[in-house]
Task: structure prediction
Amino acid sequence: MPAQAAAVAFRGFLRFGRTAALRLASPLDAIARRVAGKPVLPPLWLRRHAGPVASFESSAREMAAFLDRLGVLTETDDVLDIGCGPGAMVPECTRRLGPGRHYVGFDVHEPSIRWCRKSFAGDPRLSFELAAIASPYGSRSGVPARTYCFPMADGEAGLILAKSVFTHLFEEEARHYLEEIRRTLNPGRPAIVTAFLFERASDEFANVTLAFPFGDGQVRWRSWLRPNSAVAYEQSRFFELVGESGLRVQWMSAGYFPGAERLKGQDTLLLGL
Result:
């Protein structure tokens, strides 16, 4: 389809231009942060790959405060960070990591993993793995996501984080990731995942269809050109996937859909065995 191919090419050109501009601006940003006495952050273009640049630090702080309120990260926990990106949660987890415990982060984006390995090399408690998965956010030549094995042994993780991961996965991939969470999670310990969930019977479903106009059943997505950029699930279907994997939803904090007059944030779920 020539029109679709042209649209994909144009969007690719815009993303390339944005990345190039952020690469050029990154040294100036690093100097400004150093002069202001602020902590070192990934370059701007890596921060943008993980989400809005302006919320890189605040989003991590909000998640860390959320973990503290729930009391789910203890000094005896090893942490598995699914889709760690350029390490937004690493400083927060490091401050809460107990002696002799470990943090393992993995991501499909090689530049982010490379930056993390270099920047956090001085802390032996931290390790970062490249997930060689075929993904629009990494390499398109990797293995299917449904075959990937998380880099932790059975029952090893005392806390699993999957922040803004299931918002990019369709059912087959989501099911496999939930099964891997079930495999690596220590019984009695929690997994925190975020997702876009909706209920068709709710008053806000009109906002959902505006924000996620594609798809007509239990799974909807925002972009025709980039379906994985934002994926939403009917809540009952996502809960079914959780149950089929051997997990259960222990608690949920409702988020929002763009256009709805509610607090900003994805739906956040506490999962357990």
In short: The chain has two domains: 1-40, 50-272.
